[in-house]
Amino acid sequence: MTGPVTGPVGGPVGGQQGAYLVTGATGRLGEATVRLLAERGDRLVLTGRNAERLAELRKSWAATSRVEVLEVDVTEPAGAQHAAAEAARLIGPLTGMVHLIGTFSAGPLMLTDAAEFEDLIRANYLSAVVATQAVLPHLGRGGRLVYFTTPLTGEPLAALSGYAASKAALVTWMRSIAHEVKRRGIHANAVSLTIADTPEMRRERPGIDLDHTVSPELVARAVGFLTSPAADGIYGGIIPVLGKFSYSSALAGPPPGITGPPPGAGGPGREAP
Ligand SMILES: NC(=O)c1ccc[n+]([C@@H]2O[C@H](COP(=O)([O-])OP(=O)(O)OC[C@H]3O[C@@H](n4cnc5c(N)ncnc54)[C@H](OP(=O)(O)O)[C@@H]3O)[C@@H](O)[C@H]2O)c1
């Protein structure tokens, strides 16, 4: 027996195009995500706090008239409600939201102020709550909600407690609300990624093992999948886009097929012949 038909959702298989609110589109993953959705014909309203970056994004899509931008802070309930209402007015009934808002910081517990933990919780978790509450009334029957997380929620590392905990909150919350909204044919899912390989990241972390990063285009493809009929059966899922990243430990030795010390423990491992 097949499940309920979830209504029109944009994508390469569905025929009918989608209308998405893309929150936090001014960030590192924004461009690739917007490109994938706009090129397949979806109409988008992009939000952000950076007016200059929003103007650039709008300009690069001006020829298609598929992309509108809105300078607004979606982490505040009033801003989120304004963004969702404007998006519905500009591009019609929404088919979903791609929630890119998030932030990162690291530091040992005893050197990290409580305010930094609050910032992480606000940007990584509460922003999703507030934006989702705003957008749900504008979805009909059927829709897609996509969030972004990290493998650190399952295996947190030292000095990343605030970041990992804020994303763990997001993921647990997402899996719970996925059960609430699925009755309306709405799919809430997340993409889990390691570190996106962007020019900013390469500047910040010279010498990083690029095999453990992922291209924004591959992350965008996972968004494309989750917002397509190919994901009709997935509710509350976490899609890993981890590249060749894997945890290693001196106890376990290098992963199969790799010789030498694990990355970060004296030099990169070498592929076994
Ligand atoms: N990039 C990665 O390596 C990576 C890895 C794992 C997970 N993720 C997650 O994937 C999502 C997108 O990543 P990204 O690299 O595109 O993120 P990003 O560049 O750091 O930021 C994405 C957006 O979030 C907004 N934002 C951050 N803090 C905010 C706050 N306190 N209030 C309002 N807006 C705020 C940024 O606005 P401004 O431009 O105004 O700052 C930007 O529009 C995020 O949830 C991130 O945590 C990313």
From TrEMBL:
Residues 253-265 have a biased composition (Pro residues). Residues 253-273 are annotated as: Disordered. Residues 18-198 form the Ketoreductase domain. SMART domains: PKS_KR. Keywords: Oxidoreductase. SUPFAM superfamilies: NAD(P)-binding Rossmann-fold domains. It comes from the Bacteria. Transmembrane segments: none annotated. One of its GO terms (molecular function) is oxidoreductase activity. CDD domains: SDR_c. InterPro entries: KR_dom, NAD(P)-bd_dom_sf, SDR_fam. Belongs to the short-chain dehydrogenases/reductases (SDR) family. This is Short-chain dehydrogenase. It comes from Streptomyces aidingensis. The lineage of its organism: Bacteria, Bacillati, Actinomycetota, Actinomycetes, Kitasatosporales.
